[in-house]
Design brief:
alpha/beta, 8-stranded mixed beta sheet, about 350 residues, two-stranded antiparallel ribbon
């Protein structure tokens, strides 16, 4: 994928990205996921976004982008003129970039060297071809979530990323939360004997290609406390010794491994250092994004539940149509009335309640 920023006809910037492609992928779905990820990380969207293909759920995505920009954002598929030429040129640039990347053995060499460095630094028995990193995000225990990101052969495998809602915890406890998401994830790797003896049939995890894949290395975001919590879960599930484990503390980017009291410091800006920090940053970004979305939906439900005469049916309808409270506040009475069952009187009541909530 290639993104160009154009202002008053002049090129202001350009970025290229490698996206994963799988048989059966729908371009509109891939594009929607990329746009959401890109603008989650790159600040305020512009008013006009030219695309070759209309993204999935484009109206909902435009509402979310408008919320980020504090002004209206729209997609367009230019058919002629200067904008069409710029879009075509951007597409050609993306193709050239992909061709260069696919034929650049140096990039593959760098990733392989990084993995070899990490193997040596952590005294691993084999190269960590599949690495999983976990992070927790919450505010005083509220809307607590966990993230799992996956790197395979040194590259992000985004279709294997997974997110978890923390269950049964209202107080901040990163150690307990890390234990919970790791146990839920690693149950998928339990032996048949363990499943039959310790896990009820109704609790057996569903098949999942990512969760059924065995990681070579698990990295938890945090120091000795998170590492100890993770080690306890591996031991509990009879996976101790099967999967390598490390904790990554933000202070000086220290790595901790079981059985060693002192930390491991990867050489600053070494290939392994850059790969590990990239992995951890991805886990942090993924957790933060999920947390913000969940918190926004929670605020939306709370406000809707306080509007007199707005029953569960209409609350569900509004929560399905709008991503969060900020997205709903961007809607006018006409847009609300387009939803089934919501007339002018109810639309006006909703807008009045939202204004009082500001």
């Amino acid at each position: 994928a290639s993104v160009r920023q154009i202002r008053e006809g002049k090129l202001q910037g350009q970025q290229n990205f490698i996206l994963e492609a799988h048989l059966g992928n729908r371009p509109d779905v891939d594009l929607a996921e990329f746009i959401q990820r890109y603008y989650s990380e790159n600040g305020r969207p512009p008013a006009y976004i030219a695309v070759e293909t209309e993204p999935e759920n484009s109206e909902l995505l435009q509402t979310w982008l408008s919320q980020l920009a504090d002004s209206k954002v729209k997609f367009a598929q230019p058919q002629r003129g200067e904008k069409k030429q710029i879009l075509a040129s951007t597409g050609e640039n993306a193709k050239r970039f992909l061709d260069d990347e696919l034929h650049a053995p140096s990039q593959r060499d760098i990733r392989q060297e990084a993995l070899a460095e990490l193997k040596e630094a952590l005294s691993l028995t084999h190269t960590p071809w599949r690495m999983e990193c976990y992070d927790i995000s919450n505010i005083q225990g509220k809307f607590s979530v966990g993230s799992m990101v996956v790197f395979e052969h040194g590259l992000p495998h985004r279709s294997h990323y997974r997110k978890f809602k923390i269950k049964g915890m209202d107080e901040p406890n990163d150690f307990a939360m890390m234990s919970q998401i790791l146990e839920r994830r690693l149950r998928h790797l339990c032996s048949a004997e363990l499943q039959s003896s310790q896990i009820a049939a109704d609790d057996l995890p569903k098949a999942d290609v990512s969760l059924n894949s065995v990681p070579d290395l698990i990295i938890v975001d945090g120091g000795l406390g998170q590492l100890s919590a993770a080690q306890t879960i591996l031991t509990k599930l009879n996976l101790d010794g099967t999967i390598a484990l490390a904790g990554l503390a933000k202070r000086q980017e220290e790595l901790f491994i079981p059985g060693r009291k002192t930390s491991i410091l990867l050489p600053l800006n070494s290939k392994a250092y850059n790969m590990v920090t990239h992995l951890r940053n991805e886990a942090h970004r993924f957790a933060i994004t999920f947390h913000r979305n969940l918190r926004g939906k929670g605020m939306l439900h709370s406000v809707l539940a306080e509007i007199p005469g707005l029953g569960p049916k209409y609350i569900k309808l509004l929560r399905t149509h709008f991503t969060d409270l900020a997205a709903l506040k961007l809607a006018d009475a006409a847009e609300l009335q387009r939803l089934p069952g919501i007339g002018k009187k109810m639309a006006d009541k909703i807008i009045k309640a939202l204004r009082q909530n500001d």
